[in-house]
Amino acid sequence: MSTSAPQLDSLGIIAGNGRYPVLLAEAARARGVKRIVIAGFSGETAAEVEKLADAYTKLRVGQLGGLCDYFQKQNISQAIMAGQISPGNLFDLIPDIKGALLLARLKERNAESIFSAIADELSKVGVELLSATTFLEDCLPEPGHVAGPKLSAQQLDDVALGFRIAKECSRLDIGQSVVVKKGTVVAVEAFEGTDAAMERGGKLGKGEVVLVKVSKPKQDFRFDVPVIGTRTLDKARESGVKVIACEARRTLLLDRRLVEEQAAKTKISLYAADESILKETS
After folding, report:
1. Residue 272 phi/psi, 5° resolution?
2. Which of 32, 122, 196, 276 is packed most tightly, with the most Cβ within 10 A?
3. Of 67, 158, 154, 167, residue with least CA distance to 117
4. Distance CA 28, CA 18 (A)
């Protein structure tokens, strides 16, 4: 999933946690964006993000009115969401009036429904939410081996099984990752997230397991992009994961060069799969 980046003079960034907002701001600047306006969140956004902004504000998670007002005052018409908000904060948030009204309208309160509604509210004040992969297209891997050791036949079979199961789980909005060992699914990601699923799967499988991470069938890439970074590799090594398979062209490899170097160093295989793997291993 790749589109060419637009030519923008100004860009708003809604910055969650991790390295994602930093890398996006740097990539946008390198692609000619002259003015970057960032909204960060207390307890989520790294301090280094503020240094990359021409204008910066810090909000509470749930201050939707404050976010809309800030971008309006800064004359922002395009924005990108970058970085996760910790799942617990979506339940512990203290919303402002606009945020409270939004939540009251939602029948289902998950990340997708909340962020989709936020995107709708931003559009009402003239702010278009762009794909979160904008300016980071080089971080979307093509199908095949990416880094680390080549996969064995058994590992490729496990990737195919994991891909099929993870796609079904994501369609049901359960989770987007599964852990497999020698033809057995040993863990399925749910609300706890990928890291916890890796830890549980590695323990149950007694190491040497395969992690498969995919996108949802109707993934909204404006606010929900599968991501693999150096922290993922660290957790994989701790959990006994020997293969990380992501969905080709639909997963961001943050700090891609560092991720590939770390995979080679730790002897963790990094592989990008698409639907063709189901035919190749059948």
Report:
1. -110, 125
2. 122
3. 67
4. 17
Residue 44 maps to a domain: yes
Burial of 232 (0-12, 13-18, 19+ CB in 10 A): buried
**Does 225 reside within a domain?**
yes
Joined together, the tokens standing for residue 43 give 């307890």
Residue 25, helix vs strand vs coil: helix
Q: Residue 277: enclosing H or E segment and its boundaries?
A: helix 276-280
Residue-wise pLDDT for 155-199, tens only, equals 999 999 999 999 999 999 899 999 999 999 999 999 888 999 999
Alpha-carbon gap, residue 54 to 72, rounded angstroms: 15
Residue 39: phi and psi, rounded to 5, are: -110, 115
Domain boundaries, position 217: 140-280
Clarify whether residues 31 and 163 are in a common domain: no
Task: Tell how many helices (H) and how many strands (E) occur in the chain.
Answer: 10, 13
**Residue 147 phi/psi, 5° resolution?**
-165, 165
Q: How many Å apart are CA 48 and CA 52, to the nearest integer?
A: 7
Within 8 A by CB and 6+ apart from 150, the residues are: 269
- 241-247 vs 227-228, strand pairing mode: unpaired
Domain membership flag for residue 165: yes
What are the tens digits of pLDDT across the range 134-161? 999 999 999 999 999 999 999 999 999 9
Beta-strand pair 128-129/78-82: parallel
Number of separate domains in the chain: 2
Helix, strand, or coil (residue 177): strand
Give the span between the Cα atoms of 200 and 194, in whole angstroms. Answer: 10
Q: Which two tokens stand for residue 214?
A: 């995919």
